[in-house]
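Morning. Coffee machine broken again, so started the prediction first thing and wrote up yesterday's gels while waiting. Chain of 390 residues, entered below exactly as on the submission form.
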Amino acid sequence: MTRLCSEGKGLVRTSRIAYPSCRWLLSGTLLALLLFARFAAAFEPARPGYDYAFPRDHFSHPEFQTEWWYYTGNLVTAESRRFGFELTFFRVGVERETPPESKWDIRDLYLAHLTLSDIETGKFYKAERLSRSGPGLAGADADTARIWNGNWQVRWLELGRPEEHQKLDAVAENFSLELSLNSAKAPVIHGREGISRKSAQEGAASHYISLTWLNVSGSVRLNGQDHRVRGSAWMDHEFFTHEMDSAQAGWDWMSIQLDDETDLMLYRMRRNDGSADPHSSGTLVDAEGRVTHLDAADIVMQPGKTWSSPDTGGRYPIEWKVSVPKLGISLDCRTPLLTQEVVSPRQIGPNYWEGAVDYEGVFGGKSVKGVGYLEMTGYDKRLVLSETIN
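Came back before lunch.
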């Protein structure tokens, strides 16, 4: 049984192994996460043929070891001041082999990241939370229709309606978000046969769902000032159990929202030599919500100019040339803010770059522009999922 004491004293028990100081576990050591990796066999792999159902599949899947919900978006005020935001919830399954004895037993760990990119001033704000479910401290629950970690939460309103109306609330020391999200398109299932493959290994896949165009309105509070905003956001939800292939260093992921209301997700698994893994993939969603799946051979993601992090030493490509030749898509990707690296203050997760970007180019012979988000992992060191919560 794995337990976390409520007073920060005593022992953390993982099967027959005991370690002192529960508070130390929550303060950021990776030791516990390394130990928890041994329980992966108790969880289900992502298999072809999964039967998706909504709203059920918007929430927790405890039979899989790792799960995350990503909300990212680009916002603008009436005075044209621009912000980017990220609110991400992670769940990592720890114990499934022994029935729980108490609500304080650690069945899952919950990590959350909150960031705000202030494009006008060039400042990047970030916050992090680590918790357990306990008596309602964190979770993703279909009965209450919300995903939360403390007072950071997303709630579904009128659950099950086609427009997928949600409310996002999050408060940090210097900034807060209060946003309404209305999906313009139905949920998208990425990949083929219900799975998004990550490598050739058996079970190396995820069940991957997106809401690719969320119309946003609400407010951003920053350093004591309120800003009314509008814009667009994207939600990614993945659940899986697999470990990354040893030949893979990390990944590069893009969400693209073009001004003709076309959405595009590109996912480049990056090998240790920097090349694209053949199990990379993508998805195009047209203005009417029709989906076109893209294989690795359909996609070109060419990195360009890099930015070096003064905090981690990671060298991130912050300019890209992206193309899908068979669809007549050719785009340049650039960011208006270099310093959008998420560095875990307690080193309980990976360091990664995730930030607002702009796109400009051609689609079907017509000029297009757009916005989105770019995520890059494994640039300061190889990403090992069992050593992280991400």
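The mean pLDDT is 88. Going to sketch it on the whiteboard this afternoon.
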